[in-house]
C-alpha cells in the first residue's frame, strides 16, 4: 500500500480524496486544507465517504515531516516553496496543475530547482488531468498507427456551468464585457517560472509532450483565443453571466515546426448554450467531448465522450453531474503506484509505462 497525503480539497481534490480512500492499493495518511474553515474535519466528510480517522490540517510543517510515499497535489495555485520541501523530504508528487512536460516551456531555473529537489529526496513528480494530460496520452497513442503525420489537433468541449471555481473563471475574465477583458489583459500568456494551469502554460506543455513523442522540436508556441458573449442571461451556481458579457472561451496553443502549425491543443469552455459566436458541437451539450484529429497517412479522427457511467451512486461519483471532474482526478490517482516506483525527477507520459485503472475493476 502506498501512503498518500491529499493536498487541498477543491473540485478536483475532493474527487482524488474519494478515489484515494476507495483505492485498494492506496492508504490515506494526511489531508491538507488551505481554507481554515475546512481544518479539523474528517477526510471522509468532505467527499461523501465514511469516517476515515484522518483529519484535515493546515499544518504544512507536520505534513512535510509526515511519513508518506506520495502527495496528491490539487490546489488552484501551488506554492513552489512547499512543493520543493515535499520533494526534498522524499515524497513523490502527482499534480493536477502543470508538470505535463515542463522542460522546454518553463524556465530552466524552475526545472533545475525541481529536479534538484527530486534528486535530493529520491522523489519524482508527474502531472496529468483530463486536458492537459489524458487527452494527450490518447492523442500520442493514436499517432502510433500512422505512416506519416502532417498535423495533430485536439479539442476539449466542456460545459463549465457546473464547474464551481469562481476564482478560475474570473481570473480568465469571464463575466466581463469583451472590452473590459481586453483592457484588463485578455490573454493570460504563460509566465515562465510561475507555472499554474490557468496561465495556459500547461497546454503549451501538452504541445511539447506531443512534440517529444513525435520527435519534433517546437520553434515557436503561438497562443490564440476567441471569447463568446452571452446572448441571454446565463445563470450558473455562483453567478449570472449577463447579456453581452463573456460566457464562453476558446483558447488554443499551436506548436510551430519549420514554419508550419503542426500541433494544436484547444479548449472550448462554455457556461451555457446561448453564446455568440456559438462553436458548441451538439454532442458536447450532453457530455464532455474530446476530439482528436490526426491528418496524415492514414488520417485518424477520434471523438470520445465522458458522461454518466453506470454507477449512479453519489458516493462513488460525488458530483455525478460532472464526470469530467472524475476523469481529471483519476489519471493522477491511477498514476500514484507507478510514480512512486519511477526513477527520480520530473516524469511524463513519455517515460512512464502505459497506465490504466489497475485493480479498480468492479464485477
Ligand atoms: N489537467 C486538467 O484536466 C485539469 C482540469 C481541471 C482542473 N485542473 C487544475 O487542477 C487544479 C485544481 O482545480 P480545482 O477546480 O479543484 O480548483 P478549485 O476547486 O478552485 O480550488 C482548489 C483548492 O485550492 C485551494 N486554494 C484556494 N485558494 C488558494 C490559494 N490562494 N493558494 C493555495 N491554495 C488555494 C483550496 O483548497 P482547500 O479546499 O484545501 O481549502 C481550493 O479548494 C487547478 O490547478 C486546475 O487548473 C486541471
What's a quick, concise take on this entry?
This protein is an alpha/beta fold. The chain folds into two domains: 2-129 and 333-346, Rossmann fold (3-Layer(aba) Sandwich), CATH 3.40.50.720; 130-310, no CATH class.
Can you walk through the features of this model?
There is one protein chain. The chain starts with a strand and ends in a 17-residue tail after the last strand. About 4% of the residues have low confidence. Helix content is 27%, strand content 27%. Strands 3-2-1-4-5-6-16 form a seven-stranded parallel beta sheet, sandwiched between helices. A seven-stranded mixed beta sheet has the order 13-8-11-12-7-14-15. The chain contains ten helices and 16 strands. The longest helix has 14 residues. The relative contact order is 0.17. Strand 1, helix 1 and strand 2 form a beta-alpha-beta unit. It folds into two domains: 142 residues, 3-Layer(aba) Sandwich (Rossmann fold); 181 residues, no CATH class. It has 363 residues and is α/β, with parallel strands linked by helices. The site of NADP nicotinamide-adenine-dinucleotide phosphate (NAP) has 28 residues, from helix 1, helix 5 and helix 6.
Amino acid at each position: 500500500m502506498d501512503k498518500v497525503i491529499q493536498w487541498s480539497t477543491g473540485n478536483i481534490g475532493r474527487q482524488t480524496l474519494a478515489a484515494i480512500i476507495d483505492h485498494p492499493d492506496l492508504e490515506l495518511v494526511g489531508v491538507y486544507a488551505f481554507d481554515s474553515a475546512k481544518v479539523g474535519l474528517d477526510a471522509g466528510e468532505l467527499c461523501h465517504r465514511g469516517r476515515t480517522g484522518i483529519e484535515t490540517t493546515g499544518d504544512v510543517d507536520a505534513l512535510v515531516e509526515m511519513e508518506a510515499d506520495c502527495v496528491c497535489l490539487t490546489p488552484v495555485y501551488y506554492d513552489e516553496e512547499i512543493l520543493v520541501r515535499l520533494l526534498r523530504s522524499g515524497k513523490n508528487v502527482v499534480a493536477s496543475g502543470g508538470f505535463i512536460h515542463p522542460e522546454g516551456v518553463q524556465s530552466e531555473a524552475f526545472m533545475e530547482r525541481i529536479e534538484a529537489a527530486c534528486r535530493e529526496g529520491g522523489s519524482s513528480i508527474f502531472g496529468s488531468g483530463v486536458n492537459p494530460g489524458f487527452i494527450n496520452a490518447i492523442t500520442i497513442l493514436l499517432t502510433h498507427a500512422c505512416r506519416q503525420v502532417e498535423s495533430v489537433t485536439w479539442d476539449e468541449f466542456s460545459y463549465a456551468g457546473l464547474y464551481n471555481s469562481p476564482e478560475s473563471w474570473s481570473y480568465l475574465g469571464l463575466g466581463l464585457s469583451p472590452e473590459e477583458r481586453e483592457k484588463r489583459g485578455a490573454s493570460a500568456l504563460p509566465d515562465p517560472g510561475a507555472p499554474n494551469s490557468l496561465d495556459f502554460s500547461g497546454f503549451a506543455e501538452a504541445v511539447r509532450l506531443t512534440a517529444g513523442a513525435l520527435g519534433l522540436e517546437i520553434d515557436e508556441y503561438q497562443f490564440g483565443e476567441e471569447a463568446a458573449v452571452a446572448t441571454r442571461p446565463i445563470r450558473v451556481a455562483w453567478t449570472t453571466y449577463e447579456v453581452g458579457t463573456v460566457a464562453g472561451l476558446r483558447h488554443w496553443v499551436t506548436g510551430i515546426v519549420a514554419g508550419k502549425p503542426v500541433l494544436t491543443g484547444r479548449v472550448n469552455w462554455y457556461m451555457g448554450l446561448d453564446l455568440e459566436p456559438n462553436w458548441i458541437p451538439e454532442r458536447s451539450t450532453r457530455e464532455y467531448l474530446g476530439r482528436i484529429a490526426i491528418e496524415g497517412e492514414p488520417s485518424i479522427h477520434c471523438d470520445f465522450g465522458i458522461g454518466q457511467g453506470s454507477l449512479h451512486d453519489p458516493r462513488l461519483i460525488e458530483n455525478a453531474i460532472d464526470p469530467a471532474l472524475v476523469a481529471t482526478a483519476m489519471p493522477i490517482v491511477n498514476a500514484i503506484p507507478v510514480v512512486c516506483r519511477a526513477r527520480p525527477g520530473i516524469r511524463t507520459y513519455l517515460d512512464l509505462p502505459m497506465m490504466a485503472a489497475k485493480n479498480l475493476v468492479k464485477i
